[in-house]
Amino acid sequence: MSTDVFGALANPVRRRLLEGLREGPRSTGDLAGMFDLGRPAVSEHLAVLRGAGLVREEPRGRHRFYHLEAAPLAEVEDWLHPFERYWNRRLRALSDLLDEEDSR
Amino acid sequence: MSTDVFGALANPVRRRLLEGLREGPRSTGDLAGMFDLGRPAVSEHLAVLRGAGLVREEPRGRHRFYHLEAAPLAEVEDWLHPFERYWNRRLRALSDLLDEEDSR
DNA sequence: CCGACGCGTCGGGAAAGGTTGACGCGTCGG
DNA sequence: CCGACGCGTCAACCTTTCCCGACGCGTCGG
Q1: Helix or strand holding residue B91 (H, E)
Q2: Residue B53: is its pLDDT beyond 90?
């Protein structure tokens, strides 16, 4: 298991897979229909997402449904947060406020 | 220019480089001192960051200073935002903070 | 019970990424 | 003017990633 969330998000196919799963659970073949990709390729991308904890699988009959598991994305959010003040004036005020809160 | 921000962030060395640049501009050799890496490796990581627009270079004498350019990180933030409602943690913290502010 | 279906996984080949040593270029100090 | 310094870049190598065809396994329908 790699648990490398940033690495999992580096691939555009995997990002689109997560976007598709936002609307609800889907089967592998259903997801594969979204791309010009073979089913094995999609299956392996899903394995990477599973390794990063971004997806949970639910076998049902001969299908296998994948569910979005967004919690690990918090790691990305946490990493991103200290940078927010450098590109968004509006968020900068909030960022400063949070700093003020933390140091109280 | 690759402009692939997600790909640029996939490497832990590049993430640490950005973290280091948050504190101010630094020279290549200075940044290389932060890692067990040769200077060429760091130089090429910086080239990737430059390709993604995450870094701006300022030649000064025989040094070359790199500045953080956080604007492209907004793309990551924008992609991440629709997922926030699925893990809620930070959203809840912000909500709590706003409530506290209102009642002051 | 048997063939079709939906899967994951494995082996291999192509492509991309990471690191290194060697080189060349501009810059500074003596 | 010359040697040392700080850089970027290149060729080469190794590793990783990405994709496919082929296979095997469990499941469903007739």
Answers
A1: helix B89-102
A2: yes
